[in-house]
């Protein structure tokens, strides 16, 4: 099986580790490098994986996954390049860092060393993620296929050109947070209407799960599914009118625009 080193055992690193193990990836083929000792202990205890230094983890790995913050990429890369990277053994770097272009990695690596940039999202923790892949200059079809095969174990995989990854980050990388925010607001609103928090939470969670499943399985668009809930002159129409009056659609345009701009900015400042 492919040996994977995860550099950075934070929130997305943990989601990847948990998702891979859950999908049957062997624990002996996973190794984690986490610079916080306390966090490394937590990861080792929770998942039974080996935790070690960046150099040791990278040395034995086929795929080196960088799951550190964009500002920490450079330091982590410096540690990785202290070992002898082996392009012939088809070693590969996969970067999950938002905004950081593959062109920032490539000059620091041995000539022709392949890099694949990926924007995942946290639902991969439960096998329902979406990972969007973009090959760097030296990543060939077989590298993309390897990354696809690893990440398809924890959700769907989409391939785009790298220049679309900032937009992707705004939509699906940050996306779970928007749905969680909507869930929080709906639960609070339900409590405001007199439901207990437990009942309001159960109703909101199942409504989200059910609506997501319909979107996934139905041939109808989001608009058509919404029309089917909206009886003329009824309760949904009254609610949607308020959401539109408060500018919910414009808020999403602006919010995703801000995320896109921030992703571009993080790529510039990561240098
Ligand atoms: N959290 C999310 O939903 C998503 C995050 N990402 C990207 O994933 C990356 C990590 O994000 P999070 O997991 O949220 O951050 P985080 O802060 O939770 O985790 C980063 C971890 O890396 C460790 N670290 C930093 N430098 C290190 C080094 N040199 N060696 C070993 N460990 C090191 C830190 O101690 C920390 O535990 C970021 O670049 C982010 O843009 C991408 C998609 C979604
Ligand atoms: O908020 C962030 O910067 C990261 C990237 C996408 C989701 N979380």
Automatic annotation (TrEMBL):
Reaction catalyzed: L-proline + NAD(+) = (S)-1-pyrroline-5-carboxylate + NADH + 2 H(+); L-proline + NADP(+) = (S)-1-pyrroline-5-carboxylate + NADPH + 2 H(+)
Tell me the ranges covered by the Pyrroline-5-carboxylate reductase dimerisation domain, including all copies.
162-266
Keyword Aminoacyl-tRNA synthetase in record: no
Residue ranges of the Pyrroline-5-carboxylate reductase catalytic N-terminal domain?
3-99
Q: In which pathway does it act?
A: Amino-acid biosynthesis; L-proline biosynthesis; L-proline from L-glutamate 5-semialdehyde: step 1/1
EC top class, as a word: oxidoreductase
Q: Which Pfam families match?
A: F420_oxidored (PF03807), P5CR_dimer (PF14748)
Which superkingdom?
Answer: Bacteria
Keywords attached to this Swiss-Prot or TrEMBL record, sorted alphabetically, are:
Amino-acid biosynthesis, Cytoplasm, NADP, Oxidoreductase, Proline biosynthesis
Q: What is its EC number?
A: 1.5.1.2
Q: Give the GO molecular function terms.
A: pyrroline-5-carboxylate reductase activity
Q: What is its main location?
A: cytoplasm
Q: Where in the cell is it found?
A: Cytoplasm
Q: Which Gene3D superfamilies does its entry note?
A: NAD(P)-binding Rossmann-like Domain (3.40.50.720), ProC C-terminal domain-like (1.10.3730.10)
Query: Which family would the database say this protein is a member of?
Result: Belongs to the pyrroline-5-carboxylate reductase family.
Q: Matching NCBIfam families, A to Z?
A: proC
Role, per record:
Catalyzes the reduction of 1-pyrroline-5-carboxylate (PCA) to L-proline.
- Which protein are we looking at? Pyrroline-5-carboxylate reductase
Q: Which organism is it from?
A: Rhodococcus cercidiphylli
User: Which gene produces this protein?
Assistant: proC
């Amino acid at each position: 099986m492919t040996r994977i080193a995860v550099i950075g055992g934070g929130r997305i690193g943990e989601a990847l580790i948990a998702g891979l193990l859950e999908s049957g990836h062997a624990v002996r083929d996973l190794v984690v490098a986490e610079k916080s000792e306390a966090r490394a202990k937590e990861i080792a205890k929770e998942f039974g994986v080996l935790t070690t230094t960046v150099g040791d983890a990278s040395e034995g790995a086929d795929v080196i996954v960088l799951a550190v913050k964009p500002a920490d990429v450079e330091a982590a890369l410096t540690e990785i390049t202290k070992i002898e990277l082996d392009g012939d053994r088809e070693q590969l770097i996969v970067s999950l860092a938002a905004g950081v272009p593959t062109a920032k990695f490539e000059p620091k690596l041995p000539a022709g060393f392949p890099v694949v940039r990926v924007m995942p999202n946290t639902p991969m923790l439960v096998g329902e993620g979406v990972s969007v892949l973009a090959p760097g200059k030296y990543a060939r079809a077989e590298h993309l296929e390897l990354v696809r095969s690893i990440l398809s174990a924890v959700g769907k995989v989409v391939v785009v050109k790298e220049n679309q990854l900032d937009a992707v980050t705004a939509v699906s990388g940050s996306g779970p947070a928007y749905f969680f925010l909507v869930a929080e607001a709906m639960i609070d609103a339900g409590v405001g209407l007199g439901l207990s928090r437990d009942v309001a939470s159960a109703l909101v969670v199942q409504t989200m799960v059910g609506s997501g499943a319909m979107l996934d399985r139905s041939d109808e668009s989001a608009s058509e599914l919404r029309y089917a809930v909206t009886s003329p002159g009824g309760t949904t129409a009254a609610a949607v009118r308020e959401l539109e009056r408060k500018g919910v659609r414009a808020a999403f345009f602006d919010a995703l625009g801000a995320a896109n701009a921030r992703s571009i900015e993080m790529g510039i400042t990561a240098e």
